[in-house]
């Protein structure tokens, strides 16, 4: 290139994602604690399952929105649509990726308004579970001692490690599978996002909800929940191995998979 790009628009994207992360961070830990403190013990798993199920619907609609935006030209609204001579199937096509940020940002802002009307405190039910460990942690204001106690809890630490492994695999799956479908199966960006949003995330959300119902029905304790989680995770891992048998031959790329001749 003769001229280096001098646009600083990436700073706005960076600041926007920074603010979004700050605003979204309290929802999951504080929201789950809120439900756990003020819901009946047998109902808490169902409520938490509903929370996670709805959270899975966000990425699903995000993929569908991304599929729609990918069909629109990147400069939509600034150029005459009749003057565009290429189609989404053309390798030079760039979709309106920025439009998703505006729609999702406005939706985030509107969905945050109801949180302002939550009561400052609620009356705990008599059946609420009183965890001595939690009270001990709250009474101790020393952060490092509290952190040491939390990480010293073998059940919590094991769950934390399992969650890290699960989310690491899931993030890689969601991030690279659309591109894999484009490269290996010749699908457009729009169709790949649509297929991922429809076939992958709804079953996960449904599974989370069903898991909450099963825990409520059989009133699982810590040990029962751990055994149930281990069994389901192992079956999921075994089924995921089938991905190794899905694929196509390597693409012919001069200088990489075949010679220049």
UniProtKB/TrEMBL annotation:
One of its GO terms (cellular component) is basolateral plasma membrane. The chain crosses the membrane at residues 46-74, 94-118, 155-174, 194-214, 226-246. It comes from the Eukaryota. GO terms for molecular function: bile acid transmembrane transporter activity; sodium-independent organic anion transmembrane transporter activity. Keywords: Disulfide bond, Ion transport, Membrane, Transmembrane, Transmembrane helix, Transport. The keyword Endoplasmic reticulum does not apply. GO terms for biological process: monoatomic ion transport; sodium-independent organic anion transport. Gene3D superfamilies: MFS general substrate transporter like domains (1.20.1250.20). It is found in: Cell membrane; Membrane. It is a multi-pass membrane protein. InterPro entries: MFS_trans_sf (IPR036259), OATP (IPR004156). It holds the Pfam family OATP. NCBIfam families: oat. Belongs to the organo anion transporter (TC 2.A.60) family. This is Solute carrier organic anion transporter family member.
């Amino acid at each position: 290139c003769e001229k280096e790009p001098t646009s600083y628009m990436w700073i706005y994207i960076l600041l926007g994602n920074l603010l979004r992360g700050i605003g979204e961070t309290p929802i999951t830990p504080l929201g789950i604690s809120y439900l756990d403190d003020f819901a009946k013990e047998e109902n808490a798993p169902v409520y938490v399952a509903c929370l996670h199920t709805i959270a899975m619907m966000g990425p699903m609609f995000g993929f569908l929105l991304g599929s729609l935006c990918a069909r629109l030209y990147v400069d939509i609204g600034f150029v005459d649509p009749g003057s565009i001579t290429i189609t989404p199937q053309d390798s030079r096509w760039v979709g309106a990726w920025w439009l998703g940020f505006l729609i999702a940002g406005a939706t985030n802002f509107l969905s945050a308004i109801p949180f302002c009307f939550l009561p400052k405190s609620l009356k705990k039910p008599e059946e609420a579970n009183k965890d001595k460990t939690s009270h001990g942690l709250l009474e101790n204001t020393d952060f490092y001692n509290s952190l040491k106690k939390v990480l010293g809890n073998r059940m919590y630490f094991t769950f934390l490690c399992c969650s890290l492994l699960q989310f690491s695999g899931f993030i890689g799956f969601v991030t690279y599978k659309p591109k894999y479908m484009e490269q290996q199966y010749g699908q457009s960006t729009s169709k790949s996002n649509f297929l991922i949003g429809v076939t992958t995330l709804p079953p996960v959300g449904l599974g989370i909800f069903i898991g909450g119902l099963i825990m409520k029905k059989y009133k699982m304790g810590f040990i029962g929940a751990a055994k149930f989680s281990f069994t389901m995770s192992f079956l999921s891992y075994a089924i995921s191995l089938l991905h190794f048998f899905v694929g196509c031959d390597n693409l012919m790329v001069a200088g990489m998979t075949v010679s220049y001749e």
